[in-house]
Write a structure and sequence with these properties.
single chain, ABC transporter involved in vitamin B12 uptake, BtuC, 75% helix, mainly alpha
């Protein structure tokens, strides 16, 4: 049996990691800043160049990266309980595909900014509704049926994405590909996704015990008084909305929602009272660090952050699978 880390030291370490990741994100870039300059700017002083770099460019992007990573990790943890499948991730039910079709349609029409984000969010909601309706059908809603429906819908969106890429011109193709690979270059101020992740975590935490029971099966959950059907619907809606907001902000960023819950289960077990806040902190920290690497490793050229998370996530996930013995 693997030794589990106590929740308090784990969460304290993750808070420290988040603070370190934020400091690195604010200091590192094509124009590096020493730590004392960053501290001076955050305290209300600093020279104009440093203030512009930190407050107008790097801080909003870091906040967006943290919130997006936290949303994906939280959605991944919820999806894995909903489907009772440790390989489930936020994108498995086709939400990202619907968002991608909405965003690419906007880019193909030559609009940008709010219209791309708005179209992506509408596309994600449409996909969520399609999967919800089709998975319920006449025979009830089971995890297997929901999973299969989501996979089929995702394949359908994938075909639509391929068609849009074929129809696009060279001018818009690059921006489309960057969006599909995950990109924080066109981020918002970051406060909206941050509010969403804080609100979502506060809503989900009181139901952590219900998640613990449901993860062990519907029969046991019903025997212990959990209203399984409305609770599973609520999990689906919450996870889909978290994914929709994340994809709207940064495109499709892989592996965060899959790897982070696995990592925390290996370290601290499957108690969602620890797993949920831990996933938010670790997912947000990892995406902040990945985005810092994406915009600095080939500076001034920027890489899609999804490429960096994939490069980190593939070997890390294989390592976690190799370490795991028995159910997580």
């Amino acid at each position: 049996m693997r030794e589990r880390l106590h929740p308090l030291p784990l969460l304290s370490a993750l808070v420290a990691l988040t603070a370190i990741a934020l400091c690195v994100a604010l200091a590192v870039g094509s124009v590096p800043l020493p730590p004392h300059s960053v501290i001076s700017v955050l305290s209300g002083n600093g020279d104009p160049l440093a203030r512009t770099l930190v407050l107008e460019l790097r801080l909003p992007r870091a906040i967006t990266a943290f919130a997006t990573g936290g949303l994906l990790a939280l959605a991944g943890a919820l999806m894995q309980v909903l489907l009772r499948n440790p390989l489930a991730d936020p994108y498995i039910l086709g939400v990202s595909g619907g968002a991608a079709v909405g965003a690419l349609l906007s880019l193909l029409l030559g609009v940008a900014g709010f219209w791309v984000s708005g179209s992506a969010f509408v596309g994600a909601l449409i996909s969520m509704l399609i999967v919800f309706v089709l998975a319920h059908g006449r025979g009830g809603w089971t995890p297997t049926r929901l999973l299969l429906t989501g996979i089929v819908v995702a394949f359908g969106w994938g075909a639509a994405i391929s068609l849009l890429l074929v129809l696009s011109d060279d001018a818009s193709l690059r921006s489309m590909l960057f969006w599909l690979m995950g990109d924080l270059s066109y981020r918002s101020s970051g406060w909206l996704p941050l509010v969403v992740i804080i609100t979502g975590l506060l809503i989900c935490l009181p139901f952590a015990r219900h998640l613990n029971v449901l993860a062990r099966g519907e029969t046991l959950a019903e025997a212990l008084g959990v209203s399984v059907r409305p609770f599973t619907i609520a999990i689906y809606i919450a996870a889909s909305l978290f994914t929709a907001v994340a994809v709207t902000e940064a495109g499709a960023i892989g592996f965060v929602g899959l790897v982070v819950p696995h990592m925390l289960r290996l370290i601290s077990g499957s108690d969602h009272r620890t797993l949920l806040p831990g996933a938010v902190l670790l997912g947000g920290s990892l995406l902040m660090l990945a985005d810092t690497l994406a915009r600095s490793v080939l500076a001034p050229q920027q890489l899609p952050v999804g490429v960096v998370t994939a490069a980190i996530g593939v070997p890390l996930f294989l390592y976690l699978l190799n370490r795991a013995r028995g159910p997580l």
